[in-house]
Every structure is written in C-alpha cells, then in structure tokens.
Write a structure and sequence with these properties.
Blueprint lengths: L3 H9 L7 H12 L3 H19 L4 H26 L16 H28 L2 H10 L21 H9 L3 H8 L3 H14 L1 H20 L5 H19 L6 H4 L9
Length: 261
C-alpha cells in the first residue's frame, strides 16, 4: 500500500504538468457547487480573523500561526469533498484545526526561514532610513513624514529574491498538511521540491488568482465573499491536479485511505 510520502516521491520522480488556465476554470466549477456554504464560511473566516487581530500582542501571532492556516485548510478540505462528488457537512470547514500542531510548526518554520533570507535586504532598507521613516508614518498615518529617504540601489533588490523564491516554493505546505496528513517538515519539503519545478508558472498563477481575490475588495469588500472562496478553490484545484490527489485507487494503490474522509 502506497503511503502519502511514497506517492509524493513517485510524482517527483516523473514529469509533472502545471495547467495554468484549467485551474481557474476548475476552481469556479468547484465553488459553484455550494456557493451558499462557501459564502457563509467566508463571513465567519473574515470576522474571526478581524476579531482575533484586535487582541493585543497575541492576536496577530495567533492569526498568522494558527487561525488563518487552519481556516484556510478548511476551505481545501471542503473543496476536496465537493471535488469527489460528496456532500460535506458545514463542520468540514473547521477540520483544519485537527492539524493545529503541524500547522503552527509549519507556519513558524516558514516565518523563520523566510525571515532569515530577508535579513540582507532588510539591512539595506534600514541603512537607507526606510525603517525609521515607516515607524514615523505608523505613529500618525494621516501625516506623511517629511524628508522621504532615498531609494536603495537597484542591485539591493536582488537580495529580496531568496525570500520571494521561498515564499512561493512553500505555498503548498498547508495543502500537504491537511490533504495528505504530512508532518510539518515533510510538507515543507514536498511543497518546495514540487513548486520549484513550476516556480515561474505558479508565481504567475498566484498573481492572477490574487488579483481575482483582490477584486472583491474593490467592490466595497462585499465581492470578497465571492472572490475569496473562488481563489481558495483555484488553489485547491491546482494542488489536486499536480499531486494527483483524487486519482483512481487502483492506480494509486489505495492512497485515498490516507486522505481526509
């Protein structure tokens, strides 16, 4: 019987395709199967994140390490059931909290690794006075501080590339935790190895789907109730196809026994 890790190794050992356009259409197909539930959960998602962010000191940390990752995985779990022709219960959206430990560790490690790669660029930005300028702006956002600093040299922006590369390469970490039940390091490595193959295509895909999600903000934020779940389903559709998530059990040697049911 093939384990999730063995399946990922098998996929990585052969060629993989990234069908950019297909995933956008497929995402809309999935979300249209149950718009009502997706919209309802999106409301809960946004309210929870906003309320928790108001908690001093720990609110933003809780959102970044647990709440947002767990609720995001909930979108994927619900989309997965719809994709398999099932009729999920609304509570499926909250099943991401079943993986709380792995998600917290994954998020923390990603923050540390990406943060370390960002240090060289951060030093340049600090040296040119942009950190102080930003802190002054945050003290009174209505008044822009005088004497805007000079821009860092063009070459310094190359120092930002490692952080950007890893931010994209780790984008499927939560997918692997929730849909394949991988532990944090296996999920991080599976995402990095797989998306490195399709880095540019996925980067462009993330921009396009991000613009679709962001379009909801322009519509008095009401549109976000429609565009955010569509964005999540597009992300799921891409992951499901590239990793052959729902392949025939006969082809996958019973792999579905290891997935969320």
């Amino acid at each position: 019987m093939e384990t999730p890790k063995a399946k990922i190794e098998r996929i990585l050992s052969g060629p993989t395709d990234f069908k950019f356009g297909d995933y956008i259409g497929r995402g809309f197909d999935i979300v249209q199967k149950d718009w009502g539930s997706f919209i309802g959960f999106t409301v809960i998602f946004l309210v929870l994140v906003m309320v928790i962010s108001l908690i001093p000191f720990v609110g933003s940390i809780a959102n970044q390490l647990l709440v947002t990752p767990a609720l995001t995985v909930g979108f994927f779990l619900y989309a997965n059931k719809l994709d398999k022709g099932e009729r999920p219960e609304f509570g499926t959206f909250f099943k991401g909290f079943d993986f709380a430990g792995q998600l917290v560790i994954s998020a923390l490690i990603m923050m540390v690794i990406i943060g370390i790669t960002f240090i060289p660029f951060g030093i340049v930005v600090w040296k040119y006075g942009w950190v102080e300028w930003y802190m002054e702006l945050m003290k009174n956002p209505r008044v822009q501080p005088a004497d805007m600093p000079d821009l860092p040299p063009v070459w310094s922006f190359l120092l930002f590339l490692p952080a950007m590369f890893l931010s994209v390469a780790y984008a499927w970490t939560y997918h692997f935790v929730g849909l394949y039940k991988l532990e944090f390091w296996d999920a991080l490595e599976a995402s990095r190895r797989l998306l490195t193959r399709h880095w540019l295509m996925f980067f462009l895909f993330a921009i396009v789907t991000g613009l679709i999600a962001g379009a909801g903000v322009l519509l008095l934020c009401i549109g976000l109730l429609f565009t955010l779940p569509a964005y999540m389903c597009m992300s799921y559709a891409a992951f499901a196809d590239v990793t052959k998530l729902n392949e025939d059990p006969l082809e996958g040697e019973g792999i579905e026994q290891h997935l969320i049911v």
